[in-house]
Amino acid sequence: MDYKISVSIMSGAEDGNMLEYSLMRGDGRKTATGWVLTIGRHDENDIYLRHDLYTSRYHAEIICDRGAWYLRDLDSTNGTFFENPDDYFNERRIYGTHSLTENQLFRIGRTWLQFESIE
Length: 119
Fold this sequence. Notes:
Layout: E1 4-9, E2 18-22, E3 29-31, E4 34-40, E5 47-48, E6 60-65, E7 68-73, E8 80-82, E9 92-94, E10 97-99, E11 105-108, E12 111-117
Parallel strand pairs: 4-5
Antiparallel strand pairs: 1-2, 1-12, 3-4, 4-6, 6-7, 7-10, 8-9, 8-11, 11-12
């Protein structure tokens, strides 16, 4: 089974870039029940945010587990946030692992990203 996603960068130095990832292409790492992609400022990450100094070296992970998508903060210094659609200026910081929905906007450091799974 192949897993595919796209992540659009919505702010910062790489604003407008759309990144596509696929397990079959060798992106991320396969797990017993799915797939994991890492996000951070270190060049070993799958989603490499080199220009955002507020992003930790190993900041967060996008996880597919048994077909469900999750975002996990890796105890980052500056946090991982979900957009609050009711109040843009009052985003919600997440701790640990949370469900990730289609077209979900989230912030890593100072970079806004948008998640989309590809069927």
